[in-house]
Write a structure and sequence with these properties.
The structure holds two protein chains of two kinds. Chain A is 28% helix and 25% strand. Chain A is built from three helices and five strands; from the N terminus they run βααββαββ. Chain A has a five-stranded antiparallel β-sheet, covered by helices on one side. Chain A starts with 27 loop residues before the first strand and ends with a strand. Classes of the chains: A alpha+beta, B alpha/beta.
């Protein structure tokens, strides 16, 4: 995801790109399995609060990222990764399952069928931005949550 | 953990009550399904799931509960939930399942409220 500067806008601070390269590095970058879901939720909650989200919104964000992680586990890939970026007033989360396509050649899908039912639908209700890059060897879902005021 | 200990089932006032632990998600949803299926065999129709200790539930957990509820409805009954955790209330609200499956703030109310 590239930041676009309109001529009349001041330059924005560097943003993480969708694949995490360039911009600034993730605050959290970990490989996970089903045994780590509780740890993962704790990380997400901490960073959601750090982004300035009130408690109920932070809980929604935890649910959404958990559902993405659960999908990655259910798809049975060997490698799953979670990355979190602290942004000003927002939190960006990225879940990789397997070996997603390179950012220069994304096979973007606006909707992935969710064989396990409703997990992605829940994410869509909660996330402000959602991007899916899916290839034959893996999938990357990147979501952004904007902190809501109290 | 064995499903029998993660999701204990006991009979209370003639109604099977399944108790869920702190989280219900893909890591233990199969155990929940097994406990719910076993409970259905103990008395047709009515089943209470006591989620008062549960602080987190995901869509995998919801699916197990919905399946049990539909089975119970087919026998003229229903699943009733005891829900106190805010995040649990929230996922039911987000998915609209709070309109499908009744929840109560205490086990006593879940057991004693008359069917609507």
């Amino acid at each position: 995801m590239t930041s676009e500067n309109r001529p009349d806008e001041p330059a924005r601070p560097a943003e993480p790109s969708a694949d995490g390269s360039g911009g600034f590095p993730p605050a959290v970058d970990l490989a996970f399995d089903s045994g780590m879901l509780s740890v993962l939720r704790t990380h997400v909650h901490a960073h959601a609060c750090r982004a300035g989200m009130p408690g109920d919104q932070a809980a929604d964000v935890v649910l959404a990222v958990h559902e993405l992680a659960a999908n990655a586990i259910s798809h049975g890939g060997k490698t799953r990764r979670l990355r979190l970026w602290d942004m000003a007033g927002a939190l960006r989360c990225q879940v990789d399952d397997g070996d997603p396509p390179a950012p220069s050649d994304p096979a973007l899908l606006s909707w992935l069928p969710d064989p396990h039912g409703h997990g992605l639908w829940v994410v869509r209700q909660i996330a402000d931005q959602m991007r899916i890059a899916s290839g034959p060897r893996g999938t990357r879902v990147t979501v952004t949550f904007n902190a809501r005021g109290e | 953990m064995m499903p029998g200990t993660t999701f204990p089932v006991e009979m209370v006032s003639g109604v099977p009550v399944v108790t869920t632990p702190e989280h219900v998600d893909i890591t233990n949803a199969e155990g929940l399904r097994a406990a719910l299926a076993e409970s259905a065999g103990r008395g047709p129709g009515r089943l209470v799931v006591d989620m008062s200790r549960t602080e987190f539930c995901d869509t995998a957990g919801l699916h197990a509960l919905v399946a049990a509820h539909k089975r119970a409805q087919a026998e003229g009954g229903e699943v009733r939930l005891v829900v106190t955790g805010l995040a649990v209330q929230r996922i039911f609200a987000i998915t609209g399942l709070d309109d499908m499956i009744r929840s109560f703030p205490s086990l006593h109310e879940a057991l004693t409220q008359r069917p609507s």
